[in-house]
C-alpha cells in the first residue's frame, strides 16, 4: 500500500494532534504551512517535518500531496479548503467545516467537481467510551432511541478573561468553538437535525462574552435531542444521556464512564448497569480499546478515500446548517 503524503495548514495546537494521528496510520507528513513563517519553521522542526512554507499556495505548488489537514481558524476554512480542492488534494478539516451554510456548500461543490474527498474532525466519536456506546445503540441494546440529552461543560475562566483572542471573531464566540462537538455526537445518534428552539443566558458577572449558557432543542430523524453548553464549570467535560424504549445509556465521551440502565423498577436490574464500563476496562487491559481518538478518526477518513460514495456530505452540510441556525440567536 502506498503511504499517503500529507500537508498541514496552520501550525497551532490542533495541528500536533493531526500529525500524530496521520503517523499512527502510516502516512508521511511531508510539509506544513503557516502565514507566520517562524511558527511554521518551529512546528516543522519540533515535529520532524522536512519542509515548511509561509503560504498554502507555495506548499501546494512545490509539494505533491494526497491530503491536506486544515488546522486554521474556522472562519478561514472556505478560502483554504477551496484552494486545496482546486489543487486536487483531499482534505481533512478541523471542525466545523465552515461557519456558514453557503461557505460549506461552496467547499463541497468544488470538492465534488474536482473529485476529491472531504472529512471533518469528529474525534469524540472515536474515544473508547463513544465507540462502545455507539455499538450498544446500533445493536438495539436499549431499543429504538427516543431522545438524547448532551451536556457540555467548559471552564468559566474562558469567559471571565479580559479577551477571548481568536474566539472573539467566531460566530457565537466561545460557543462557536465547542458547539460542533455536540452537533456531530447528536447527529450520529438520531440522524439529520432540525433546530426547534434556542436560548442563551448569562449566569456569571463580568467577562468578554454576551452569554455563558446555551440551551437548544432539536428534532432528528430518529428521535429528539436537547443540548446544553455551560461555561460555568471548573473543567471541560461532556455527558450524553440516550433514552431508548428498553433502557438508557449514560456515557462520558471524553472520559471512561458508561452505564446502561434498565426501564424496570427492580433495583436488581440496574446492579448490572456498569457492565459496559467493566467490559471497557477489560478492553483496555487486553489492549483492545483504541488509544488515540484522532488516529481512529483519521483512519476512518482514510477508508473513506478508498470508497466511491459521498453520502456523508449531506450530513456535513446538515451540521453546518444547524451550527449557523443556533449561533444566529447569539445577539
From TrEMBL:
UniProt keyword list? Oxidoreductase
Q: Which Gene3D superfamilies match?
A: Dihydrodipicolinate Reductase, domain 2, NAD(P)-binding Rossmann-like Domain
Quote the SUPFAM superfamilies the UniProt record gives: Glyceraldehyde-3-phosphate dehydrogenase-like, C-terminal domain, NAD(P)-binding Rossmann-fold domains
| Molecular functions per Gene Ontology | nucleotide binding; oxidoreductase activity
Keyword match Oxidoreductase: yes
Which residue ranges does UniProt annotate as crossing the membrane?
A: none
Record InterPro entries: Gfo/Idh/MocA-like_OxRdtase_N, Gfo/Idh/MocA_oxidrdct_glycsds, GFO_IDH_MocA-like_dom, NAD(P)-bd_dom_sf
**Residue ranges occupied by any Gfo/Idh/MocA-like oxidoreductase N-terminal domain in the UniProt entry:** 4-120
List, for all copies, the residue spans of the domain called GFO/IDH/MocA-like oxidoreductase: 132-249
What PANTHER family does this protein's entry cite?
BCDNA.GH03377
Q: What is this protein called?
A: Oxidoreductase domain protein
Native source organism of the sequence: Desulfurococcus mucosus (strain ATCC 35584 / DSM 2162 / JCM 9187 / O7/1)
